[in-house]
Amino acid sequence: MNWRTDWGLRSRMALTMFLLFGLYIVFIGVLVAQGMGMSGVIVMVGLFSFVQYYFSDKLALRSMSAKKVTEQEHPELHDMVTRLSRQADLPKPAVAVAQSNVPNAFATGRNQRNATVAVTTGLMQTLNRDELEGVIAHELAHIKNRDVMVMTIASFLSSVAFIIVRWGWLLGGNNRNAAPVWVAILISLVVWVVSFFLIRALSRYREYSADRGAAAITGKPSALASALMKISGRMDQVPERDLRDQAEMNAFFIIPIRSGFIGKIASTHPPTEDRIDRLRQLERELETA
């Protein structure tokens, strides 16, 4: 495998985390200034950090109703993940399958040694072997780039602000004289909005990087391009129930589930057409190398 370190991705990860860190220093400072004791802030952040870091993979799998499967249950899928993991120079992740007609896949886990690759039954039914390998290699590239860990940490920081906005609104609504509460709600809302767009900008770039990583692992950029075409075509047929149930997992899917204008501008993924064009360019470069 001709794996190249993506310094563009690393620099964007570092910049995003630096900006988020600075944003939350200001955020915590405002909360303390508005009457929330430092001990309360530390307990809140510490508790959420612990839950997010150690249980994010289980929560992600549960949200998709995905269950880890053994080699006896899905021998071909396990063989594929084992072989591609070796090619990617990664420890083999756990393998999970979600009973869903929506063709998709995602990776989760706090680090390379505690990762899981999940696919839906719809994905396995839609793609041929080479295409499925391309999708799994894409997810392994996310793990190798440590995207899952970075996105989990980044989304945690955004979630704290969102929770304060949600519950602070109820608290403030019951107490019209609670000026500090309303100030905390306002700053939390600003922090959440800024975090939202920072995370999505990083997420879109990481998809390009994972596509390049999949091409390096398999040596078949065209297979992943073909898979993206098939999956995106099927996404037009996703029922409304699946849109509601799975929208929160968009940052981890190989293809996002979008709905309307807001869904497009807030997308965690770049346009599928652009990804396919870049993969085809990689294919031409391999053919002429």
Quick recap:
This protein has one domain (7-288). It contains 11 helices and 4 strands; from the N terminus they run ααβαβββαααααααα. The chain has helices at residues 7-33, 38-63, 75-87, 121-126, 129-144, 147-173, 179-218, 221-235, 240-246, 260-265, 272-288; strands at residues 66-68, 94-98, 105-109, 115-120.
Description:
The chain has 289 residues and is α+β, with helices and mostly antiparallel strands. It has one domain. Helix content is 69%, strand content 7%. It has eleven helices and four strands, in the order H-H-E-H-E-E-E-H-H-H-H-H-H-H-H. It has helices at 7-33, 38-63, 75-87, 121-126, 129-144, 147-173, 179-218, 221-235, 240-246, 260-265, 272-288; strands at 66-68, 94-98, 105-109, 115-120. Strands 1-2-4-3 form a four-stranded mixed beta sheet, sandwiched between helices. Strand 3 and strand 4 form a beta hairpin. The protein is globular. The model has no long low-confidence stretch (mean pLDDT 78).
What structural class do helix, strand and pairing data support? alpha+beta
Reading the helices and strands in chain order gives HHEHEEEHHHHHHHH
Question: How many separate structural domains?
Answer: 1
Radius of gyration: 20 Å
Order the strands across the largest sheet as they lie in space. Answer: 1-2-4-3
Average of per-residue pLDDT values: 78
Task: Work out the number of β strands.
Answer: 4
Uncertain stretches of 5 or more adjacent residues: none
Shape: globular
First CA to last CA: what distance? Answer: 15 Å
Report the total helices: 11
Main sheet? 4 strands, mixed
Percent range for helical residues?
55-70%
Q: What percent of residues are in strands?
A: 5-15%
